[in-house]
Amino acid sequence: MNSIKFDYSHICNFVKKEEISALFPEAKNALESLKNGSCKGNDFLGWLDLPTRIGIAELNDIENTARELRARTNVVVVIGIGGSYLGARAVIEALADSFHNFGDAGMKVIFAGHNIGEDYYHELMNYLSDKEFGICVISKSGTTTEPAIAFRLLKEMLEAKVGKAEAGKRIVAITDASKGALRTLADQEGYKSFVIPDNVGGRFSVLTPVGLLPIAIAGFDIKALVKGAVEMQKECLEKQGSIALEYAAARTALHRKGYAVELLANFNPKLHYITEWWKQLYGESEGKEHKGIFPAGVDFTTDLHSMGQYIQQGPRMMMETVISVENSQYKVEIPADEANLDKLNFLAGKRVDAVNKMAELGTRIAHVDGGVPNMLVSMPALNAEYIGQLFYFFELACGISGSMSGVNPFDQPGVEAYKNNMFALLDKPGYEAASKEIKARLK
Which of 57, 134, 288, 418 has its CA 20 to 30 A from that of 424? Predict the structure, then answer.
């Protein structure tokens, strides 16, 4: 099959190939613990064989729901935070026209519930005031602060605009199967709903309705996305060696050599939200017990003119993984100019992508020469199938490397700290003692 590829040959000046190879048995043991369910966090392993468990009936239901929503609206607001929106946004931003956030279906998809910005919501509601809009609300509990605020605001606005009955036909809920505030409301109001599987954590949920429905609403091919994930699942779970094992072993070897930060770099602006999705996946999975590689992201060549100096000559604590897209979708050639004042006639007749590829290669060489170990993930093209492969590759490698570090890759207890402080400061019922304590600390 055509597939994404992984190359770690350019880290061998920084960690010996034998040292990486020596980690393969440990990586294979970690993978086996995922497959047999003996790893930490084994109650959240539903993502592992998820691609091959997704049935055609479920995909058709999602596509039909998206089609019905598009028939009633021209804008859909996807409400969610973290894993409840990043995967969908990553795919939509990667596949959409850069200046029109929609696919072939002509549907505008925008996002809310991922911040608490008052100006953002004022401007969003002003934008929606003359639009025929719908809502896709994603929350396991229905009580997570950021999406709950967004849903309360937009639900009230939608009901006032089109009436409660029509609003109920324009709202789709993705939530728990049987419990929680959003499940209760969806059942009471008769919203079309889909289930977030109990054994799939948010950051691993892009191939559940959490990611698939918004992507389908935008008009993109979710069956191709799943097909790519199925291909990578079979490649990585049914063979002795795989690129997921190699990536997990290589980044772990570098981490044990003192490289504490991993930059995910791309040379295609459409990949920005792939990076944002990856940052959550690895940060929330590995950053526990004072362990873990810090995941950071850069968009090149843009960030070469800002972060490039630090990467090239700052502290030598970084490794770099580059996502490279081999073939662009369109062809744009640089024209000749008679005056040649910008001295660029040596590029005349060359494709923009050819220049970008040389910028990519030149950067990788420079960073290796400057002391930054460099790994490469190559995608044949930027389409739904290869993105599906990429998602599963990163998810599996994350499960392996997180298990190798000894943490539970599938929980996120540290996320509760800010919430507890925020609730205490807002005098939420039940937080009276914490409120008194934290306010005393602020005096």
Answer: 288
Quote the radius of gyration of the chain (alpha carbons, Å). Answer: 23
Report residue 439 as tokens: 């306010």
Residue 332, pLDDT > 80, answer yes
Pinpoint the alpha helices (H) of 257-351: 272-286, 308-313
- Tell me the backbone φ, ψ of residue 59, rounded to 5 degrees: -65, -40
Cite the active site residues.
284, 305, 419
Cα distance between residue 223 and residue 174, in whole Å: 19
| Alpha-carbon torsion (99, 105, 108, 109), positive or negative | negative
User: Hey, do 5-41+226-404 and 50-223 end up sharing a CATH topology, with the first three levels equal?
Assistant: yes
Paired tokens of 359: 């910028």
C-alpha to C-alpha distance for 100 and 418, rounded to whole angstroms:
35
268 CB-near residues (< 8 Å, 6+ apart): 323, 325, 382
User: What's the DSSP call for residue 82?
Assistant: G
Helices (H), 295-383: 308-313, 352-369
Angstrom distances, CA of residue 2 to CA of 167, 212, 225, 381, 385:
44, 23, 14, 10, 10
CATH class entry, domain 50-223: alpha beta
* Helix H or strand E encompassing 192: strand 192-195
Phi first, then psi, for residue 215 (nearest 5°) are: -65, -40
What pLDDT is stored for residue 102 in this prediction?
58
Q: What pLDDT, in 10s, does the model give residues 210-267?
A: 999 999 999 999 999 999 999 999 999 988 789 999 999 999 999 999 999 999 999 9
Please give the Cα distance from 102 to 81 (Å, whole number): 20
Is 5-41+226-404 a domain of CATH 3.40.50.10490?
yes
Residue 229 parent element (H or E):
helix 222-237
Task: For residue 256, give both structure tokens.
Answer: 């044990």
Burial 338-368 (b: 16+ CB within 10 A, else e): eeeeeeeeebeeeeebeebbeebeebbeebb
User: 139 near 155, Cβ under 8 Å?
Assistant: no
Domain ranges of the chain: 5-41+226-404, 50-223
- Does residue 267 contact residue 356 with C-beta atoms inside 8 Å? yes
